[in-house]
Design goal:
The chain is mainly α and about 60 residues long. The protein has one domain. It is about 80% helix and about 5% strand. The chain contains two helices and two strands. It has helices at about 1-25, 35-60; strands at about 25, 30-35. It has a two-stranded antiparallel ribbon. A hairpin with a 4-residue loop joins strand 1 and strand 2 (about 30-35). Helix 1 runs antiparallel to helix 2 (about 35-60). It is elongated, with a radius of gyration of 14 Å.
């Protein structure tokens, strides 16, 4: 049980950090990212971490 809480905490921190980074890198005037290649990696990892959080929430 403690392992699931640690996993949830870790992926929550990852999702929060990546969400903030993606928000800061996005230019709302031009609707583009400053560094598109890096943004793609951030988005993939962000979606993966949110998926893991949702998957673990359903098991509880």
């Amino acid at each position: 049980m403690e392992n699931k809480n640690t996993l949830r905490f870790t992926f929550s921190i990852i999702a929060i950090i990546l969400g903030v980074v993606l928000f800061k890198q996005f230019d709302f005037e031009t609707l583009k990212f400053e560094k598109p290649a890096l943004a793609i990696i951030y988005i993939v990892v962000f979606i993966f971490s949110v998926f893991i959080l949702i998957k673990n929430r359903k098991k509880i």
